[in-house]
């Protein structure tokens, strides 16, 4: 199931998401296709099967025992068998999921996290969705399902697209960056604000985030840009809000992250195109 830890600023009516009972599924694969409206949610629950959750349109996030997993479009959230997870969807999403029987999950990660969805998996999910194949039965469809499984087994897992920190000083830096995404301070300048050396702060970033502070900031800006595209803001407005000196500099960053320019991404992946 999909999920998100963020909560709306004011009370809104929430819509319950139907939870799949995998004990009633025949075979070893189940493919689910849904469109969830904004403010959809599912309470904490688990499945005996593992499953990949993928938003064909809209971003996806989930809460799991180890923390919060956030994935932009073109990524999915992997939940191993038995892991409790919950969701809150602030925006509408076009939802796809691949449920795998426990024996198929032995070669997959045993911790939840974020996976990039490659073109082969996307194409098979699109084909199954167009033909409404939920439980593959024919030998041809079973071969395609096995390809999906093989592709997922070969896909690296990230704990989250935007990791969180534990060290208080790094937490302080990341919170400040999120509150001011247009802030251009360097690693050395951020280190000075928390009374650290540049080298020490860089070491904390690599150990806790698995990336540099600059890469983390770029991912944070990319996710903010997706939210702004969802909200209908212009590319120029988003660029300046995120601290880019020109729209072209923002477009270049966005295309590096998503593989698409912002307006094409908006048409293909934002909920407004549902």
UniProtKB/TrEMBL annotation:
Q: Is this entry keyworded Transcription? A: yes
Q: Pfam families given for it?
A: AraC_binding (PF02311), HTH_18 (PF12833)
* Ranges of residues in domain HTH araC/xylS-type: 168-268
The protein depicted here goes by the name AraC family transcriptional regulator
Give UniProt keywords alphabetically.
DNA-binding, Transcription, Transcription regulation
Q: Which organism is it from?
A: Comamonas terrae
Alphabetical list of InterPro entries matching this protein: AraC-bd, Homeodomain-like_sf, HTH_AraC, RmlC-like_jellyroll, RmlC_Cupin_sf
């Amino acid at each position: 199931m999909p999920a998100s830890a963020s909560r709306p600023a004011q009370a809104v009516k929430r819509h319950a998401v139907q939870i799949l009972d995998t004990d009633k599924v025949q075979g070893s694969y189940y493919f689910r296709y849904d469109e969830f409206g904004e403010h959809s949610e599912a309470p904490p629950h688990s499945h005996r099967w593992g499953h990949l959750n993928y938003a064909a349109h809209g971003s996806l996030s989930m809460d799991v025992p180890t923390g919060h997993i956030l994935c932009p479009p073109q990524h999915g959230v992997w939940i191993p068998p038995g892991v409790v997870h919950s969701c809150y969807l602030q925006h509408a999403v076009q939802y796809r999921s691949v449920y795998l029987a426990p024996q198929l999950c032995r070669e997959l990660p045993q911790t939840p996290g974020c996976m990039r969805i490659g073109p082969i998996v996307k194409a098979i999910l699109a084909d199954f969705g167009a033909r409404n194949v939920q439980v593959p039965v024919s030998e041809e469809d079973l071969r395609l399902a096995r390809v999906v499984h093989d592709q997922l087994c070969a896909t690296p897992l990230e704990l989250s697209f935007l990791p969180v920190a534990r060290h208080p000083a790094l937490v302080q830096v990341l919170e400040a960056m999120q509150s001011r995404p247009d802030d251009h301070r360097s690693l050395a300048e951020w280190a000075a604000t928390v009374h650290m050396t540049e080298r020490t702060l860089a070491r904390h970033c690599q150990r806790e985030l698995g990336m540099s502070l600059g890469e983390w900031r770029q991912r944070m800006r990319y996710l903010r840009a997706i939210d702004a595209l969802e909200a209908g803001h212009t590319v120029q407005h988003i660029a300046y809000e995120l601290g880019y000196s020109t729209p072209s500099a923002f477009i270049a960053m966005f295309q590096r992250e998503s593989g698409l320019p912002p307006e094409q991404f908006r048409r293909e992946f934002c909920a407004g195109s549902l």
